[in-house]
Amino acid sequence: MPFQAWLQIGLTLLIAGLVSIPVGSYLARVVTDGKTFLDPILDPLDNILYLLIGRRACTQPMNWKAYTAHMLVTNAIMGAIIYLILVFQDHLPLNPMHFTGMDPILAFNTAISFITNTDWQGYGGETTLSNFSQMAAITFPMFTSATTGFVVAMAFIRAFVVKDGGRNLGNFYRDLIRFTTRVLMPAAFVLALVMIWQGTPQTLEASVTAHTVQGGDQTIMMGPVASLETIKHLGTNGGGFFNANAAHPYENPTPLTCVILTLLMIVLPSSIVLCFGEMIGNRRQGWVLYGVMAAMVILFLPITVMPEQTGTPTLAHAGVELTATSTQPGGNMEGKEVRFGVAQSGMFASVTTLFTTGSVNAMHDSFTPLGGMGTFVGMMLQCVFGGKGVGFLAALVYGIVAIFVAGLMVGRTPEFLGKKIERPEIILVSLALLIHPLVILAPTGWSVVAPYGLASMGNAAMHGYSEVLYAFSSSAANNGSAFAGLNANTPWYNLATAFVILIGRYPPIIFMMAVAGSVAAKPTAAVTAGTLRTDTLLFGGFWLGTILVVGALTFVPALVLGPVAEYFAMKHLLLF
Predict the structure, then answer these.
(1) Considering the entire predicted model, what is its pTM?
(2) Which residues contact 152 (CB under 8 A, 6 or more apart)?
(3) How far apart are CA 302 and CA 313, in angstroms?
(4) Chain-centre distance of CA 473, in angstroms?
(5) How confident is the model at residue 574 (pLDDT cuts 50, 70, 90)?
(6) Opening angle at CA 385, ends 513 and 20, nearest 5
(7) Is 281 helix (H, G, I), strand (E, B) or coil?
C-alpha cells in the first residue's frame, strides 16, 4: 500500500486515541454525578424530564433486577411507539411525498432493529419513510438505544465498587437522561452544524427538482439528513437516510466528513474503556483493556484494507492497473466512491464493523474475498471495542473466562477487581458467550438449505453463503450493515433477523447484569501476594489470547466455507 494511505489511517487512529482520553474522563464525571461544564445549561432540562417521568422513579436506587426490568420495559414501550409510527405514517404529518404505511412485518423488523442500536434496514429510506418517520422513528431511537447500551455497562461497573451489597447500581432513568443530555445531544448538535457546513442537507423539504444539462428534470430527495447522520455515527448506530448510506454525497459529502464520521464511530466506544478505569479507581486496568482492544484493531484492520489495495487476479487479467500512482488509485475500486478511494473505504469498512456501527461508505459485497472477510471479524468477536457499552461488556465476558482459566492453571479461586469469580458467575458468563455464535450459525445454516432463504441470494456458491452469514453476523452483533447482494426484505429474513437481533441484544445483557448483582453482593477481597492481578501486560496478553482462541474455534469453520473458499477459488481462477 502507498505510504500516504498508511499515513492517513495512522493519523486517524492516533487522533481518535488522543481524543478518547479526555472524553473518557468526562464520561466518568457524567456517570458518577460529577460536575460538568454543561450543568448550568442542562440541569433545567434534566429537571423537566425528571418531572415528566416522576422524580421518585428517577431518584430511587435500583439493584440489578430493577435496573434491568426498567430498561427492558422502557425499550419495549419505545419499540411499540416506533412500530406504530412506521405502520401509520400515512396518517401522520410531514409526509409530503405521501408515502404509505410500512408493511407490518418490515415495520416489526425495523422497530426492533432501531430500538436495539442495530439499525438494520430492509428498505430504502428516501423512497419509504416520511420526514416525520425519519425523525421520530429513526433518529430518536438512535439516541436512546446508544444510551441504553452505555448505561447498562456503567451499572455493571458499579457492581465492583459499591459497598451496599448491590442494592444501588444506579438509577436507569437518571443515567439515561444524563448521558443523553450531557453527551449525545450537545455533541450531535455541534457536529450536525459541521455536516451542514460541508454540504449535508437539513431541511423539511422532501425533494428539489434539478434541471440537467441534457434538458431534462431530476428529482433529488432531501430531508433532515445532518441531524440523523451525526447521531448515527456518534452513537454507533448505523443505518442511513438514503439507501446508499454514507456512500451518498448528501450523507457523506467530502473526504473531510468521511474522516470526521470515522472518528465519531471510534471515540465513544474507546472512551468507555478509559471511563471504566476511572470509575474503579484503577486507570491501569482501563489501559490494559484498551491495549487489548487496540491490538485487535491494529491486527484486523489490515485484513480489510490491504486486499482491497492489492486487487484481484481477475482485475489484473482484464488489464486494470493495480498499483497506485499519482494519477489512479490502483487496487479494487469496485463498489467504492472515488471521493474516498481504497484507503478511506477500507478503513471505514473496518471501523464500522470493529466498532459495530453498521454505516458504510462502500459496498462490502464488492470487496475482495479477504477484504470482505475482514469485515466479519469485528462483528463475530463483538469486543474489538464494539458498540456503545455492549462491546465493552462482551470484552469483560472474555476477560472473566480468561480469569477463570488462569485460576484453574494456578489452583486458586479467580478474582476480578477484588471479587471472587465462582460457579454462578461462570455459568452466566458462559451463557452470554454462547448466545452470540448460536444466533449467527444456526439461522445461517437453515437459510442456505431452505428454499425461501436461498431465493434471496444475489450470488451463488461461496459468495451467496457469505451474504447470508454476514446478514446474521451483523444482526447478532447489533451492527446493521449488509452484503448488499442479499435481498433481506422478505418475510423470512425480516422475521429471522428481527429475532436474531432481539436474542443477540437482550439475553446477554440480562446475564451480565445478573453477574453484576452476584459480584456486588460479595465482599471485596484484599490484594495479597497470591492475587492474580488483571492490570498487567502479562494478563492483557492472556486476555487477548483468550479472545483470539475462542473466536477462532467458534467462527473459523464458518469463514472457511465462505470468504476463505472464495479466495482460493479466485486465486486459481476456478469457476463455480
Answers:
(1) 0.93
(2) 67, 68, 71, 389, 390, 393, 509, 512, 513
(3) 19
(4) 12
(5) very low
(6) 110
(7) coil
For 235, list phi and psi in degrees, rounded to 5: -95, 15
Distance of CA 83 to the CA centre of its chain: 22
Cα 161 from Cα 417, distance rounded (Å): 9
User: CA neighbours within 13 Å on the CB side: how many for 162?
Assistant: 25
Confidence of residue 576 (pLDDT cuts 50, 70, 90): very low
Half-sphere exposure at residue 24, Cβ-oriented, CA atoms within 13 angstroms:
25
**Separation of alpha carbons 106 and 123, rounded Å:** 8
Question: 475482495: which residue's cell?
Answer: 368
Whether the Cβ atoms of residue 296 and residue 273 lie closer than 8 Å to each other: no
Count CA atoms closer than 13 A to 137's CA, side-chain side: 31
DSSP state of 303: H
Cell matching residue 540: 492483557
Q: What does the angle CA 486 – CA 490 – CA 491 come to, to the nearest 5 degrees?
A: 140
Most confident of 204-213, 450-459, 544-553: 544-553
pLDDT-wise least confident of 1-10, 102-111, 259-268, 278-287: 1-10
Cβ neighbourhood burial of 574 (10 Å; 0-12, 13-18, 19+) = exposed
Could you tell me if residue 98 is left (phi over 0), alpha (psi between -120 and 50 degrees) or otherwise beta? Answer: left
- How wide is the angle at C-alpha 177 spanned by C-alphas 173 and 183, nearest 5°? 145
Cα 292 to chain centroid distance, Å, stands at 18
Q: What is the CA radius of gyration of the chain?
A: 23
pLDDT per position as a tens digit, 26-80: 999 999 988 999 999 999 999 999 998 988 888 899 999 999 999 999 999 999 9
Helix and strand tally (H, E) in the chain? 23, 4
